[in-house]
Design a protein that fits this description.
homodimer; 641 residues; alpha/beta; Ubiquitin-like (UB roll); Nucleotidyltransferase, domain 5; 23% strand; globular
Chain lengths: 641, 641
């Protein structure tokens, strides 16, 4: 096959690639980063490059005008190399590094009465062996097993060949005194012998921490808690954007990207492993420990995140009839999962329920305690997939509605993630229509995050700038409302106030996306309540998980019809319930058993095949809802206006 | 560190190595083969090279004269690079490739009544799954498990992450019809769930063989039997020299070589894996199968061979108090063992008993059936370590005596292995002292193999050329007896009759080595019989394993005092009992349980700490023995003379 030379202006050297190579692949080989937020589908247009010399075939120009093409612009993910090229790559959007203590995870209290001797499956035991002699020529392995039997009551053990190779040396190095770390109760095989994770020469002092990590892989953010399994204390909490974002902002884009080739699956996998392993190193540095001392990990995350972490093809998740390859992955060793801790460490992924109700939700239910309460409870994780669970200790039903990423700032022109520079709360004056707002970090605004959008929409609705159908009323006596490029728009911040030097606005297109998002979530509640034949009002508590949920203003979320209209005291924000569930399962075998029980008890309702959902969704596409009687306090507020 | 250039005359290009590198290591890097039969100890002198330019430091010149050193000769395993060198490497001894059907393994009959449904732990099941739908969104893994439960009664399964990654694709490729291969009863964890080895799209026809291999790793020869686990038939038998020979001819040399560095351990491991995997490929070619279709392996071999196969340090085997790292290795997967069959195939190593009574002996006992007979039985494997077992279904005692490699042709000037050109049988005329002999392959002789040496020694003794003490009588009326370089010697073949153009002789030094070897083995019998308080004569049958044993002439072995003097019909030659034991354990879970039972029942007697042994050894250092009353038939033959 013919080879061509591709020179990227930002790369030190050109690369040679065969005919038919995609420009993004050539860039990867040249070490040039080109972000692909839509996963390389040619939909988002963010991988724009300019072909300076040579010609290339454009498979799609969806996001390009005729002028763009004429000027040499091309989408790197849709452009095929067919000759020598010189390509100019614009500066790529930097994903801001956070590497900070997760804001949502306050000081975590150890579960009451935590006793590692009862709850913890990892045991560390100090052993003193009888040295071999001409009178006792027992082999090292049997000698070790005998000591475990004698001194720790552990009848049988398993170990990897890698561990067996080291036993003789370790026993002699320690002068026949060693410290063994074992997993005594495997999740997927309770009858299996204990697994020997680690054997070290000498006796490790009792007060040395026994390290474990709870990992939550969010589509956007990865969170790691470093835990001392002896005390149960969380010793470090770190979080960072998921490195996969550069290859797709939502799960669907990532599945599409990963399905392209074995290489792209490997890349997607390495990206998230890179994030996880860097976080683990950071957490270890803070606690003056080393990753190789971590002997256990639990992992929560949505089904796609778990599949991609483990390199399991996820294509069936996005295609009818939407099934996962596996909901509950068997216990793994860290080396096979690729997690940079002790290679023999136990890695337990929490169980999922369906393609769009994953281990993040079962972990959430576990940590919310809703599976153990008499109260009829609604648990929700407001995000792209709007996973919702309704139930109590008696029953659990669940569904996921494709809310889309509007609340994460995508699909909204000036939307952004909830980081520095995002407007997170807005107030609109009912007479002047002038807004005031609060910005994360107290800096000049760059855009609106989810909570800002909810707040803005509620204010615009209650002040009459926006009607029940989401339309912006032109003709109000304010320069803030105007005819924009995409129809009527409301200016939240003038160019001179912003970081970008451009007006921050919200248009009907944006509002329509928000309406669809909130309608999908609310319709989900309706279907769940209908499915068990109870009115939504009988819900006794609403538990909101997810770090996003934490920043929602309940009053305003009710006003737009995102949350059901109930007394505010019924709402509780739980923060990152996913990592907290992983933490509970890390500590306690009973919690681990409970989360499996939760997964098996949850009845999943597939909304895409449900007419009730469609009807409920259509009724909810209004502010706050077609049926205002469902939102009495909002009705009253409108009347007051 | 300073780097030096070493150019070997037989290498295409020089290599650069740091100061202090051994010449053998430099040679390895240059791709130059230098055999090290003593494992690089500087003892055998067979890695002789000549330094043509430059100077090097000789750590040992044990085998070199002052003239040799002056002429530039050096032992590659003892010579340290300290400057640029040009080195001349003489042609290396070629280890003749055999790659033939094992001569000793005749047509193997399948154990009577073999029923794979009862005996075999591997099950192959054809499954038809209900395809997923919007009404049934069960994940692939659970769907597969449900089918196994429903169609094969297999309640729970385990699988590696690598297998789990492929399940979704395989199910869809097969249109929800698949064939699963499982290991239903793990040896080391009978309570563990069945292990999913392989999943293939479609229904594999019932008459397709289900492949397994029985592997015997001898210090000298590796044997592989390819078996159809459904019929139990051995479909191919292949054998080849163990590739490790080039790094040590006996187990001690190999342990020393492997203990030098991680690299030398890796090399020793790869050498035997190379032999095994090549044999498997050959066996597959003969049966038109592929290695990836082999789903189970059993491995027998002495303790050192098993350790080195698996990369487990073996140093403790050769050092007081002579303990192994592990006698019974847990079940492995082929990928971790490095065996080139299905990567997920089950690999069961048979259990050993002690450093010098390994899995080859437990396998031998199993296949000999001595653990299941009323008759007091002596089982022996005549070789370097002379492992011997005495017992019956009631009790088993065992020992190993360091016989040395004399019977394998080493330590004897014109000794050689039993291959083409070896004199395997000799007759000496009692009046003329002229010999006649038989040569393997019917060609001109090159030397004497073990059976030839036994035969020659017996004939020389009975014809009076050699006395009771092993001394050659000078002054006999024959040119065959003469004073040689190392004292008196007997010429077996004149230069003009031989391949080498040199006389083939046996000297007192050679005879002394043979006496020590046979005395050690006979003393072993004595100690075993003493230990249980029975006279050696009460042994009802003598079972001789090992391919070498098969060629021994019983009459002559008794005449030199190697075997006890009993009626010939009590002796039975069983050939390679080790591979046969591996074969039985491969087929039948009951045999597998039996060999473990054998290993645990065998009482090991350490001879190096036993005074009885030393006395018995000294008494046996005569032809046939100090106490001629122990050898009545030999006494009678001498009288007749």
């Amino acid at each position: 096959m013919a080879e061509h030379t591709v020179q990227f202006d930002v790369a030190p050297a050109p690369v040679k690639v065969p005919t038919g190579t995609l420009l993004v692949e050539a860039a990867r080989q040249a070490g040039v980063e080109i972000t692909q937020p839509c996963g390389g589908q040619g939909r988002c247009g963010r991988c724009l490059v300019r072909i300076v010399e040579g010609t290339a075939r454009r498979r799609s120009t969806l996001r390009l005008s005729a002028e763009d093409v004429k000027a040499g612009y091309a989408l790197a993910c849709q452009t095929v190399v067919e000759g020598d090229l010189v390509v100019s790559v614009p500066p790529q959007e930097k994903i801001e590094r956070r590497l900070t203590t997760d804001r949502t995870a306050a000081a975590i209290s150890v579960p009451a009465g935590y006793d590692p001797a009862v709850a913890q499956t990892i045991q560390r035991v100090r052993l003193t062996l009888t040295p071999p002699s001409m009178e006792d020529q027992t082999d090292d392995w049997s000698r070790l097993k005998a000591a475990l039997r004698r001194e720790a009551g552990i009848e049988e053990i398993r170990a990897s060949l890698a561990t067996i190779r080291q036993i003789g040396t370790t026993l002699r190095e320690g002068g026949w005194q060693v410290t063994a770390t074992l997993d005594t109760r495997s999740w997927d095989c309770p009858d299996c012998p204990a697994y020997l994770i680690d054997l070290r020469p000498g006796h490790i002092p009792d007060d040395t921490p026994l390290w474990g990590v709870a990992i939550d892989i969010g589509t956007t953010t990865v969170t790691v808690w470093l835990v001392d399994l002896l005390s149960g204390e969380v010793r470090a909490q770190v979080a960072e954007y998921n490195g996969q974002i550069a290859r797709g902002e939502d799960v669907i884009s990532r599945i599409i990207y990963a399905s392209k080739s074995e290489e792209s699956m490997a890349e997607i996998r390495e990206l998230v492993l890179g994030t996880i392993n860097e976080l683990i190193e950071t957490a270890c540095k803070r606690t003056k420990s080393t990753p190789a001392d971590i002997v256990k990990a639990t992992v929560a995350g949505n089904s796609t995140m778990i599949h991609l972490l483990l390199g399991i093809p996820a294509e069936s998740i996005r295609l009818t009839p939407f099934v996962t390859a596996i909901n509950h992955v068997p216990t793994l060793r860290a080396w096979e999962a690729g997690i940079g801790i002790h290679p023999e460490a136990t890695v337990d992924c929490l169980p999922g329920v369906a393609s769009y109700v994953g281990a993040d939700i079962t972990a959430g239910v576990l940590s919310s305690g809703m599976d153990d309460t008499d109260k009829v409870t609604l648990f929700m994780d407001i995000g792209t997939n709007g996973e919702t669970v309704l139930g109590s200790h008696e029953w659990l039903v669940t569904c996921a509605c494709s809310a889309g990423p509007a609340f994460e700032g995508a699909g909204v022109m000036h939307g952004m993630r909830a980081t520095r520079g995002a407007i997170e709360e807005v107030w609109v004056n009912g007479e002047t229509f002038e807004p005031t707002y609060r910005v994360i970090g107290g800096v000049k605004p760059r855009g609106l995050c989810g909570s800002g959008l909810i707040s803005l929409l509620a204010e615009l609705f209650l002040t009459g700038v926006v009607d029940k159908g989401g339309h912006i009323k032109l003709g109000l006596d304010t320069p803030r409302v105007r005819e924009g490029e995409h129809g009527p728009e409301y200016v939240v911040a003038w160019a001179e106030e912003t970081q970008t030097g451009q007006d921050i606005v919200i248009s009907y297109v944006d509002i329509d996306n928000l309406l669809r998002a909130k309608a999908a979530i609310y319709a989900g509640f309706t279907v769940l309540a209908d499915s068990v034949g109870i009115p939504l009002e009988s819900v006794e508590q609403v538990l909101i998980g997810g770090s996003f949920g934490k920043y929602i203003n309940v009053e305003k979320a009710i006003q737009i019809g995102l949350l059901p209209d109930m007394p505010w005291e019924r709402f509780h924000f739980l923060g990152n319930t996913s990592v907290r569930g992983a933490y509970l399962a890390l500590l306690d075998a009973r919690s681990r058993a409970r989360v499996r029980d939760i997964a098996s008890r949850m009845t999943y309702i597939e909304l895409s095949a449900d007419n009730t959902f469609y009807e409920a969704f259509m009724s909810a596409l209004f502010l706050p809802h077609t049926d205002i009687s469902r939102f009495p306090t909002v009705g009253a507020a409108i009347l007051k206006r």
